[in-house]
């Protein structure tokens, strides 16, 4: 059975490769972004200043790294970076981009949700706009358990997630459920995908989770994190050990 979050991402990276582009954000808005100037960068810079982690001997795990904009940014600062992505094309591009930049990053093609735990503990775990693609409650609680398994007690989990935006318009083949904040894509039949649902005799596939600010902070708290800084979908948190 194919994971609902695989196909869209892999197809996009095949187009990025075909068009000789380097990054997800650049593909979606080349006027604003490129590999160096990725969407999360301003917040990531603020977050690093806020937590004051020095790069010497600090280790980072990034899931959903894509072609590695965030991973390269951190490796350039001296962090030791392990990074994974579910898309084989993204990892192929990430490896060649890092090689061109002379950066040593440990990239692996892997679905985070197929892991049960991380095999080491990190000073930083980074989510550079992956979270909104992991949609269902079950997948999100699994994700948070995996993060906690690999985050040092003193470590930080830094997130940028797409959020609910009342200005955003969803197309006619997309449905935003106000109760759950889940965005679904209409499909003809459940086909090979997991987690599809039938609403009013039509089939839908989960696509995004566009939570409101408060709902995301509640979700993180109830999954065992202590929020230190939040600017809507931009968050710095730690494991909450006083529970
Ligand atoms: C919006 S893109 C962001 C990519 C990259 N962080 C960047 O900013 O360029 C989300 C990424 O998450 C990856 N992804 C989605 N689900 C994943 C999973 N379960 N495990 C690993 N990677 C996943 C996608 O393949 C995609 O590269």
Describe the structure.
The chain has 243 residues and is an alpha/beta fold. It has one domain (13-163, 212-239): Rossmann fold (3-Layer(aba) Sandwich), CATH 3.40.50. Helix content is 30%, strand content 27%. The strands form two sheets. Strands 3-2-1-4-5-11-10 form a seven-stranded mixed β-sheet, with helices on both faces. Strands 6-7-9-8 form a four-stranded antiparallel β-sheet, with no helix packed on it. Helix 1 packs across helix 5 (88-100). It is globular, with a radius of gyration of 18 Å. The model has no long low-confidence stretch (mean pLDDT 96).
Helix-strand sequence: HHHEHEHEEHEEEEEHEE
The CATH class is identified as Alpha Beta
Alpha-carbon distance between the two ends: 37 Å
CATH topology: Rossmann fold
Number of domains: 1
At the fourth level of CATH, the homologous superfamily is Vaccinia Virus protein VP39
Average pLDDT, to the nearest integer? 96
Tell me about the largest β-sheet.
7 strands, mixed
Strand order of the largest sheet: 3-2-1-4-5-11-10
Q: Strand content of the residues, in percent?
A: 25-35%
Question: Can you tell me the residue ranges where pLDDT is under 50 for at least 5 consecutive residues?
Answer: none
Tell me the Rg in angstroms.
Answer: 18 Å
Q: Helix fraction? A: 25-40%
What's a quick, concise take on this entry?
With 243 residues, this protein is an alpha/beta fold.
């Amino acid at each position: 059975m194919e994971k609902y979050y695989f196909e869209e991402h892999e197809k996009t990276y095949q187009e990025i490769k075909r068009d000789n582009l380097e990054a997800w954000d650049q593909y979606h808005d080349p006027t604003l972004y490129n590999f160096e100037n990725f969407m999360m960068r301003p917040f990531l810079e603020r977050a690093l200043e806020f937590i004051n982690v020095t790069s010497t001997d600090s280790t980072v795990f990034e899931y959903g790294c894509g072609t590695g904009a965030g991973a390269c940014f951190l490796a350039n600062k001296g962090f030791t970076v392990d990074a994974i992505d579910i898309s084989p094309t993204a990892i192929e591009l990430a490896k060649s981009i890092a090689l061109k930049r002379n950066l040593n990053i440990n990239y692996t093609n892997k679905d985070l949700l197929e892991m049960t735990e991380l095999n080491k503990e990190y000073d930083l775990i980074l989510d550079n706009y992956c979270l909104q693609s992991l949609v269902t409650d079950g997948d999100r609680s699994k994700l948070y358990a995996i993060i906690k398994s690999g985050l040092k007690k003193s470590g930080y989990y830094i997130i940028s997630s797409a959020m609910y935006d009342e200005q955003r318009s969803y197309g006619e083949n997309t449905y935003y459920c106000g109760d759950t904040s889940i965005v679904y894509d209409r499909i003809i039949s459940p086909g090979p995908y997991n987690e599809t649902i039938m609403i009013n005799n039509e089939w839908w596939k989960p696509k995004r989770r566009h939570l409101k600010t408060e709902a995301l902070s509640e979700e993180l708290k109830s999954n065992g994190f202590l929020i230190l800084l939040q600017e809507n979908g931009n968050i710095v948190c730690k494991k909450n050990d006083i529970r």
